[in-house]
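Table S2 (text version). Query chain:
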Amino acid sequence: MSRTDPDAGYMYRDQKPEGFFWLAHRTVDAKHNFIVDVHVTPGNVSDSTVYLNRLDHVLERFHFPLEAVALDAGYFTTGIAKALVERGIFGVIARRRFGGKKGMFRKTRYTYLPEEDAYLCPARQRLTYQTTDRHYK
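Corresponding structure-token output:
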């Protein structure tokens, strides 16, 4: 907790400064190129957490038709996708690219071998099923 601003939130994100901050969540009408809403939260509040409430606020406040929204990868959640479909809004959301651990292969680089019920890793090693619950047979 910050001693100088106890309501600020501690933010720790990749490629962002670390510390106590506030965030301004902006909603932009890209068709007309102006900001229609700004909502301020402590720095530890995720953009995706407040998005749907802000979207509903803008729709109720301005009553303009909304056909589509474009969102960055931080909004790529099941809840947001479902809510957009329920509201009849076409969502264009950037795909998250989760980074792997250094020196490890990404899941997409493995090949499933159905005839063996095994996977082949990029180093040409076969990986067979061992256990799901960590209790070996």
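Notes on Table S2: DSSP finds two helices and eight strands in the chain. The CA atoms of residues 3 and 130 lie 51 Å apart.
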